Amino acid sequence: MPPVLRAVAPPVAALLALLLPLAGPALAGAAWAPPCAAAALLVALAVVATTGRPGLRVAGRGLREGTVTAETGVAAAVLAALGWSAAVLAVAAVSPAGPGAVPADPLAGPVLLPGAAAVLTVVAAAVQRTGRPADGDADEVRSGLRTVADRWSALLTPPAALAAVAVTAFAAGTGTPWPVAVPAGIAVLVGACPVPLLAALPAALRAADRAGGDTVRLPSPLPGRREPVGWTGPAGGPGLVGRVDTVALAGPDVLTGTGPGTVTVHAGRGEDPALVLRLAASVAAGARPGSDLRVAARALADAVDGPVPDVAEADEQPGLGVSGLVAELREPGPGDGGTTATVVAHAVLLGGPDWLAEHGIRVPPPLSAERERAVAEGRAVLVVAWDGCARAVLALPRAPHPAARPGVAELAAAGVAPVLLTPDDDGAARALAAASGLDPADPDAVRPGLDAAARAAAVAGLRVRGRTVAVAADPATDEAALAAADLAVELVPWPTDDGAGPGSEDGPGARPDPVVVPAPGSERICARGGPAEVAAALLIARRARAQVRAYVRAAVVLAVAGVVLAVLGTPAVVVAAVPVLGALGLAARGPRRRS
After folding, report:
1. Nearest one of 578, 553, 581 to 565, comparing CA atoms
2. pLDDT per residue as tens digits for the range 327-341
3. What is the dihedral of CA 46, 47, 50, 53, to 10 degrees?
C-alpha cells in the first residue's frame, strides 16, 4: 500500500464506521439499519485490528506485568464498545423480535459505538507521532513519549473502570434495560479514555521543534528517564533548565564563530612571510582533533597561497603548542649554482614563548616587542620557530561575531550569568569579553588561558560553589566540559560563510541544514550559533516543560469532564467527542517557529 493511502485509510475507515449506521435508515428506511450497523462493526474491527494493534500489544504486556498504561485506558474503552456492540447485534440477528431488539435511538444504543471506538483508535495512534522521522527507533521513542501519559493513566483508569461498573449496576438496578444500562457504563470508559494524555508530550516536543527552527533541538525522552534535561516532568518543583543560573561559554569559537580571520605576520629580519605562513599552517594542521589550535589552523590555511605541506611526527602539548617536521621541495634559485631541486626539512614549533623555551629557543627582543604589542591590542598571538630559532610572531584577530553581544544580553535577560572559558591568553580574552558585553574585570566572568582539561575543571569548580551550570560548547573541542556540566548544550558555532552551514551547497547566504537532533533519552540539547541560541534553547526547554504541565492538567480536566457527563446520562457517542476533540486540540497547539 502506498504511504499516502496507508496514512489516509484509517481515518476514512473510522469515519465510515461512524456514519454507516446513520446512512442506512436515512437513505433506505429502517430495514437497512441492521446491515449497516453490522458493516460498521466490521469496519471498526478492521481499524482496531490494524491501526490499534501496537497499542493493544502494549496494553496486554502491561497488564501481564501488573501495570496500567495509557494504552490500557484506550483498550478498555475501545474493546468494551466493540464487544458490547457485537453482542447486541448478534442477539438482534437471532432474536424473534428482529431489528427491534436494537434500541431505536442511535445515540443511546450500540450502533454508533463501533464508530466511536474506531475514531478513538485512530486518534490515539495519530497523536503519538513525534514529527521526527529521523529518530532511529520509532517504537522506543513513542514508548518514551508515553511515560507521562502512563503515570497519569495509572491513576485515572482504575477509578474510571470502577465508576463504569457502578453506573451500569445502578442503571440496571433502577429498572433501566440492559441495552441502555451497559452503554451508560461504557460511556464512562469512553469519557476517561486518555488520548489527550497521549497527545501532551508529543505536542510539546513538536512545539519545541517549531520554536527552535533550524537552530535548537531538544531530546525526546526514553522509558525509565523521568526527566531528561529537566523539561519533561509534569509535576513537582522546577526542572533542571529552570534551576540553571550559570552558562559557561567554553572553547575557542563560542563567541567568534568559525570564520578564519586575517593573520598578521611580524617576521624577523630576513624571513619570508610566505614561508612563515606555509610552515606554520603545516604544523598547525598536525594538531590533535578538537585542539584549541584549530582556530589558528583555519586562519593559517586560509592565508597560505597554494597547498599546505604535510607535517610529520606532529606532537601537541595542550595549552602550549605543537611541533612537527615539515619537508618542502625547493627549486634552485638563480644564485644557487645548481639545477636540481632539493628537499628541505624543518623542525617547526608553533605556540607561546613557554613552548619555545621548553625546546631551548628564546624569542628575540624585536619579536618579543611585536608580541607584546599584539597582545595589548587584544589579539591571539603565536610564535613560529624552526631549526632552533624564533622566526616570526603571528597575530590573529579575536573579534566577536556580530551576534555575540546581543546574545550575551539575551542570556542575562534569561536570568543566567554567562562565563567565558577560553584558551586565549589574558589580553585577547578580556578584549573579546569586553567587545561581547561581558565585564573583562570580573574574574568570575572571564577565565582566560584554559586548555580543554582546565575548562572542564573550571566547570566542576563552579558546581562545587553551588551553581547550576549549563555548558555551551562544541563537543569537538570541549566534550570533557560538557560531561562535567549539570546541563550540556552541544553548540556548533556560527558557520563560516555567513549562513552556509555544513552540508549546504548554495554558497554564502544559503540556509544552513537543521541542527542534528540529540539522541533520544540523552541529557543534552543541540544548537547552532552562539549565546543567543543558547538563551533560546533554555527558554524553549522551560516553555516545553510548562506546556507539558498545562497539557497534562487540561487532559486530566477533560477526563474528569467526560466521566461527569457520562454519569449524568450523556450518550457514549457524545461523550466520545470530549477526549477526541481534546486530543486533537492539544496536538494542534504550539508556538510558531522562532524567527
Report:
1. 578
2. 876 666 555 555 565
3. -110
